[in-house]
Amino acid sequence: LREALILKASNQGSLRPGPTQRPRPITSEDLLRGFERNELYPAFQPKVHLATGQVVGCEALARWDSPTFGAVAPDEFIPLAEQSGLIKSITLQMLRDSVRMARHFLELDRSFEVAVNLSATLLSDTSIPEEIEKELEEADVPAQALIIEVTESTAMTDIARAMDVLLRLRIKGVGISIDDFGTGYSSLAALARMPFSELKIDRSFVKECLTDADMWKVVSASVAIAHQYDMKAVAEGIEDAETWRALDELGCDIGQGYGFARAMRRDAFDEWCRHWNRQHSLAITSERHQA
Ligand code: C2E
Ligand code: MG
Ligand code: MG
Ligand code: MG
Q1: Contact residues of ligand 1, CB 6 A cut-off
Q2: Whose alpha carbon is nearest atom 5 of ligand 1?
């Protein structure tokens, strides 16, 4: 039943068109124009509590649907935004939309956490903690409902600088996630000093963890590190029910991946959650009946 649900869920995700033939290379002016014309928006990918299947929140992922270039992937336009400085405006817009989304779920009396990615370039911007607090206050959302994700390589390249911004956010109650864990070079000592509340295991390890013993070792060691340091362990890139089950048995707390759903626009996300939670509570009940 779990398998059937997962298949169903993955088919519901909004598929983005593949890479299109570009009329010309994209410039930062194109991106700026696209931003001003509201062509950028957040898509939300659910994060699921592995033991119960309940949705605990989501990650906001930037999308750009350009009339000229089609769907441009964030791996392509985020570096462009970082170079041109537009990343700050994009991130603040992502934050604004995300905290509003969190507010909506909190009103449905559910605990809900929304995660927003923060670029390396913004970790040296000391106005960022205040800007984030302002967005939380304006949406009347508690800091505990927000998670800021920074990649391992970003956070660990200049620890002193990252520490300042991240600690100020963490003290306010904002969750801090170390993203793409396992792909950078963290020292265990530095990891202990950083104010992380969550560790996200990179999907390159999760993807093959059931077929490649070395990958499994990386994943299980990462879960152990997370718990030793009082962080939640999150696996990204869960694509099938076997991986879900194995990671749950390993003690990994939360999962995210196409096996649950792809990132979706706000309306589709709401709809998916309703469907998922209803189906899922049914699935749990009938599994109990069978047992
Ligand atoms: P990330 O933060 O590690 O986000 C996870 C990426 O993995 C997303 O790609 C997501 O769609 C993808 N993913 C999730 N589950 C699966 C799965 O089961 N299978 C596969 N194959 N992929 C999965 P996406 O949306 O293309 O984003 C790529 C990266 O771009 C993100 O990696 C993040 O580093 C960056 N990014 C996206 N939005 C933003 C943003 O608003 N600000 C910044 N600074 N970076 C962003
Ligand atoms: Mg992320
Ligand atoms: Mg990640
Ligand atoms: Mg990743």
Answers
A1: 45, 61-62, 73-75, 78, 91, 94, 117, 119, 149, 179-180, 203, 236-237, 239, 256-258, 263
A2: 236
Task: Determine the number of helices (DSSP H) and then strands (DSSP E) in the chain.
Answer: 12, 9
Q: Tell me the torsion sign for CA atoms 156, 196, 142, 270.
A: positive
Q: How far is the CA of 180 from the centre of ligand 4 (A)?
A: 5
CA–CA separation, 93 and 119 (whole Å)? 14
Q: What is the pLDDT of residue 17?
A: 47
Backbone phi, then psi, for 150, in 5-degree steps?
-125, 140
pLDDT digits (tens, 9 = 90+) for 169-184: 999 999 999 999 999 9
**Residue 256 has which token pair?**
């995210």
Query: Would you state the pLDDT for residue 143?
Result: 98
Provide φ and ψ at 49, rounded to 5°. Answer: -70, 115
Q: Which two tokens stand for residue 84?
A: 């041109």
Q: CA nearest 53: which of 281, 240, 210?
A: 281
Dist. CA 208 → ligand 3 center (Å): 16
* Structure ipTM: 0.98
Residues of the chain with pLDDT under 50: 9-18, 288, 291
CA neighbor of 258 nearest in space, from 213, 203, 221:
203
The tokens describing 121, both together, are 């370039």
Angle between helices 2-12 and 241-250 (to 10 degrees): 120
